[in-house]
Amino acid sequence: MTINIETVSTDRVVKQGFLSRYGTTLAMPLGILMLLVVGAFLSDRFLTIGNLTNVLINMSIVGIIVVGMTFVFVSRGMADLSVPATVAVGGILVLMLDDVIGTWPAALVGVLIAAIAGVVNGLLIGYAGLNPVITTLASGTIVLGIAQAFVGGVIVYGQDPGAKEFLTGRLFGVVPVIVLIFLIVALLGHLALSRSVFGRWTYAVGSNPHATEASAVPVRLVKAGAFVMTATLAGFSGVLLGISLQAARPAIGAGYEFDAITAVVVGGVSLLGGSGSIPRAIGGLLFVQLLTNILVLQGVPSEPQGMVKGALIAGAVALDVYLRRRGGRE
Amino acid sequence: MNAVRRAFDSDVFLGIVRYRVAIILVATVVISASLVPGILEFRALSLSLDRIGTTALVAVGLTLVLITGKLDLSGGAILALSGIAAIGLQEQFGQVPAALIGLAVGVAAGVVNGILVVVLQINSLVATLASMLFFRALCHFLTDSRPFSGLDPLFGLAVSRPIGGTFTLRTILFVALLVLVHLWLTRAVAGRNLFAVGSNAASAEASGIRSNGYVFGTFVFAGFTAGAAGVIQSLSVNTGSPVFGESTSLLAIAAVVIGGTRLEGGRGSALGTLGGLLVLAILTTAMEFSNIPAYTQSIVTGVILLLLILLDRFVSGKKGRDLSLTALLRSVRANRRHPENERTLAP
Amino acid sequence: MRKTPVIGAVAAAAALTLAGCAGGSTGGDAAESLNICYVTAAESHAYVTPANKAFDEAAAAAGATVNRLSQEFDVQKGTDQLTTCVSQGADGIVLWPLDPQAYIPGMIAAKDAGIPLIIINSPMDAAAEEYYDSFTGPDVYEEGELSGEALNEVLGGTGKVVIIAGQAGNGTTIGRTDGFTDKLKELGSSIEVLQVVNADFDQQKALEASRDLITRFGDDIDGVYANDDTMALGFIDAWLESGRSADSLPPIVGINGQVQAFDLIRAGQYYATIVQSPAEDGKLAAETIIKLIKGESVDKRLPIPLTVVTSENVESVDPAF
User: Fold this and answer.
1) What integer pLDDT is reported at residue A180 of this predicted model?
2) Does the ipTM surpass 0.95?
3) What ranges do the domains of chain C cover?
């Protein structure tokens, strides 16, 4: 009986094309550049400092959430759908307590309670091994319900216009405070993910949870940690949102979870975990925001803009899948 | 500590977990009946079922999608789009043809989802998120963000009116569909193949099952059921609106998961989905009857969902134990006679 | 696995048996207390919340119980809740319509069941008129007209304005917006409407929509008409957020007569608002439905009073809420 053995190429050096090696890294900056050119061409308001500053302001709140969501994606935590609830918790609590204990202590309380919700998520997903999508869906529903019950289902108004002025104002008259806060959070997040031990663990857990389990990495802690982080950051952005609006209704955070997921996905961070980075996710966010801005300037009403966003997500992921195939990475 | 662990390990406890859907359903009915007078009147029950009818139709399609291990978030948007077609085209094509076109729109949307997930190989969570955004925006675009009315408010009345004093057309439709799907899942070869695809698509493929075809098919079916839900919903209120169905997808997912179908795929039951839907239906009606605010209802729904997936985790960790009802009864009787031996039954 | 359907069937049978046992009690309370089913627009809204409160107080004063269901601005939910009211056997139904005609099937069911039904605050289509007994609330078309007059006056008949409208398809939105544009046409005004955006009577959504407006038109905006004060506040937030000063705000006309609007009129950042009392809205509706339940007849149309407030009379009028 003859045995067929397939011969495998013994070339030790495989030449990868430029596209497959750098495709995924260059795609985003090129895309943003392209948008800037197209935008400037379509409207003379686009490339003004005022307009671009506004784009940055608009993306700051979601941007903070995106930092957390990136950790969730990279650790293969799928997605955190409880974001609207934790944002609401932050916004409602900071405004409820601002005249009782002062705005900044109230902010701390808001973030803390949101963090606790994150810990619950983390325990259920990281330690009990439940499915993240359903778990965050359920916990979000519960937390939001509790937040609403807490305030009796009404709108909470803030009592501190001074804090609002500070937050919505500009440093040295140029840099918006909220953008600064966002950039600081993004920087810290990036350092945590790319330089710290926890960050390395996150990548390990995301790319190969079984192998990592065999090593000394605390897999469950890492998985849980991503959700604690997202909830805390969402609570923080809720606090900022509440202060800047001086009014918080329970639906204050509606839609932010999908905005964050959109940004992360467009940025090329894979849902399957193990790859991606904060700059990529922020790049995706910037891309989406610039695109939205161009559409607004063209007079496209806000709801139909979703058609472009939907097509964008599909296109971005399909492109990513294609480039990965070409690059030999599955 | 050991006693606690043994309690969790006992056959009775695991039996409760195994039949959790039925138990939760009975518990919900009993609690609602004692707290809310009038909930068990036939009229109220019929109303509960009709209330959940729209979500139920979406949930049927979703059950199949979840069994294959995929997710579909776009049900609500497809619902709205189909409704808009069914109402908006009434003038041009007449009421019944417009409704059929609405169904076709649902199918087409399902095909789009299928292409995204199977052909372009995009993860189903992301793909249906994208299609959800796209279809929803399309709804707004087509209607200029305004809801609009159809030709005749009385035409669609038949859909939500109790037939002969019993159940509404919508209710009969979704129950019939669920029973049909259940029979297909348990009796037909194709149905059982679906479970194989969900547990391990690669090995299913290796045994000759065309996994991709099945996955594609479930998305088309989910699109069809969402389309049906949308057409019926819009006809019953004679309105096409871009914001219909916004909470339907998530509610449907909750019902399917409460019913025991796992998000990871490979396990599920259409009857379980029916149970989950009944629980949600009775809860909603009971809460509304007793003036309980919507946010409390959210808390209860979320807690039930969480409890059930936690319990589900328990069952999956105890493979190899015979947990059928007869085995349980035998074990309880045996324990009564010999309380010192906690016998576990071999499979 | 074949046992599970059997278990399910047993469970269902058990449930229905219980139904038979408990079925003796007919739904609803004892005959003395009137039971009103009130399908309101929302639980947390600057205008709706005080209206709900006034409704509850007026109903309690008359000895009636209120079962309040909130649509949360979701028409689909509202139509379902209307059906719940009918099947619960309420003595009277008060509906806050968020759509001019989607509720008609439910209203027909109420009529068949002989339950008196009134609509509060927002008008419905002419086609719905035969299905409700009365409509209590402001004349939203007139409010639109008054706003058109006011904005036309302050801008001297010319300029570019943006309209921040409420929930799309809502009768109040349609009335207030159409009244505005029709009046401008009637006055022969050369005011141009740059864009109309829908912000669902919500401050946060108005902020987001206004950001887009300001991005697109910026300082070209000469005037703003908001369907209610809450949304106007969102516009102001967006304006200030874009780095512009409060003094450069274009004249704003809003509706509802909120406290914040009054303050802004005094500060010169707001031009006019129309006082419409939510408390009166709620109270009148409660009183009307109770009259109907008791068998008295009421007018088909019961308006609540409106007052235009500008810097001239801002001190002499009380804010609505």
Assistant:
1) 93
2) no
3) 34-137+278-304, 140-275
